[in-house]
Amino acid sequence: xxxxxxxxxxxxxxxxxxxxxxxxxxxxxxxxxxxxxxxxxxxxxxxxxxxxxxxxxxxxxxxxxxxxxxxxxxxxxxxxxxxxxxxxxxxxxxxxxxxxxxxxxxxxxxxxxxxxxxxxxxxxxxxxxxxxxxxxxxxxxxxxxxxxxxxxxxxxxxxxxxxxxxxxxxxxxxxxxxxxxxxxxxxxxxxxxxxxxxxxxxxxxxxxxxxxxxxxxxxxxxxxxxxxxxxxxxxxxxxxxxxxxxxxxxxxxxxxxxxxxxxxxxxxxxxxxxxxxxxxxxxxxxxxxxxxxxxxxxxxxxxxxxxxxxxxxxxxxxxxxxxxxxxxxxxxxxxxxxxxxxxxxxxxxxxxxxxxxxxxxxxxxxxxxxxxxxxxxxxxxxxxxxxxxxxxxxxxxxxxxxxxxxxxxxxxxxxxxxxxxxxxxxxxxxxxxxxxxxxxxxxxxxxxxxxxxxxxxxxxxxxxxxxxxxxxxxxxxxxxxxxxxxxxxxxxxxxxxxxxxxxxxxxxxxxxxxxxxxxxxxxxxxxxxxxxxxxxxxxxxxxxxxxxxxxxxxxxxxxxxxxxxxxxxxxxxxxxxxxxxxxxxxxxxxxxxxxxxxxxxxxxxxxxxxxxxxxxxxxxxxxxxxxxxxxxxxxxxxxxxxxxxxxxxxxxxxxxxxxxxxxxxxxxxxxxxxxxxxxxxxx
Length: 683
Description:
Number of helices: 11
Low-confidence stretches: 1-49
Radius of gyration: 28 Å
Strand content: 25-35%
Shape: globular
Helix content: 10-25%
């Protein structure tokens, strides 16, 4: 057994190196506060041993930042209110335990002894009193600082760089159970050095107080912490901050998914907090957000003000079957099986041998997504139990796992071998043609399919299609059958007559199948669909910003017509400007973005001048693509803000749909404000 240096000896060693580090960073010689080291040092031998009992499953709880930022509403009353709601609404019982403060809890200056001082307006009782209140509820308490001289807020609250041991001791004395350690104002000091120093400081504080602290490394993935932080902290951020919109959530998910090999009990990939309940996404999108975070074994930290959140947010956040996927003690992060065409299949091995499987639809229209029990890693079996974790229903399947998934939706199932599979009703899939479009006054045609995925037969099967009130929907072939045996299909043709006066836009369809199991159970399976009423583009050259889009997805705020993207609110863009050149017409978007237009097979060319808008200064890297139906017709390489507008044009002859795509250029979506300037279609 190695003998540890005393705490005083360690502080002397650390302090000597601190002076050298901060001097090199241009900060002069630091002062030593309260016997603490003033900057990072090489980790002490004891620090390399993490408490193996911490965060054996991904942490669950709350953090205020996504909903309050630094506004005055972030205060003692809010934090206590969240703790109360955890207990009253059953969230504590569901597994949520940490109530965490983010930035802005302290005064901008330390006291004369170098200690952190809680803001007396926000927290009149002090931090320990809040921690005590949270603990009295049977919950745990977390706090925030940064591995720099200041935190991230522009008010300049004190960071932990140079005060690690003093701050860690103060946190432990207050009763802190969780520390989020950010990355702002780090003075260029090596990330590993900064984060290992705080690790050792937390370890030292635990030795004196008996209070271990879960350590969340918020380094934004800049130095690939997944490769070195497993013996430093219990979780590490893999990306920049999340925002409450579909594009941000999707981009972060795509970055976090490939890192599955680095996750496990006590060391988790952290794709940032949950946005569920903040209002920037639909409930369907929030269910996807929660499903994908859970199958990625991500920390589940609620980021909405639960005092104001709608009931739908509690229904999502409180789904214990989905939480069980996240909290499975085996600690595996889900891995991608396939993702072609925005149809994602992600599977997670569970401790009991089952697999959680997410069928995730990235696209803006319903899609059929399918896989098999074999593809997700299950052994051969005569039948399997298929548990839908959002509908809370069971069925048997012969091995196919498939569903028509709504736009931006996720079907999350748990699949297992089960000797009693034959007692379950057969899984029945209902699907229909995708992308139905028709002009006003025309008749659209659609084919639906009802398939018995189970090993047992489906009896008395019928199917119906309904559309908007007043529309005529007619079956053109058989819509019922007495029996469907395993793998057999009922295929039905339909005609949908679009009224002559129907305005352009998307109209909902619902396809419903009814059937009976061999045991007499009556069941219904329904899927959403849509028909898009379109307007033929006029002959000649037209600006696409003057035409209605079929669909528009954007990484930050809405797609803007004839202005730049601006920020998150509609209409907040500026004149489209690329390299100092101003354009009167076009689209302002933000990666990742996709905008679709109806061409109806009548058009031949799409052209534009493209680039990163000047509104983000020197930041931003994007790439542009033009698609004709399912074929990429033109693309640029990565474009930066330093480049002038670049021409792009594509032959779209015969295409029904033209899709304009902007990707992040391979380096994340931060500041990726992109312009389709002078955007025209020739028909």
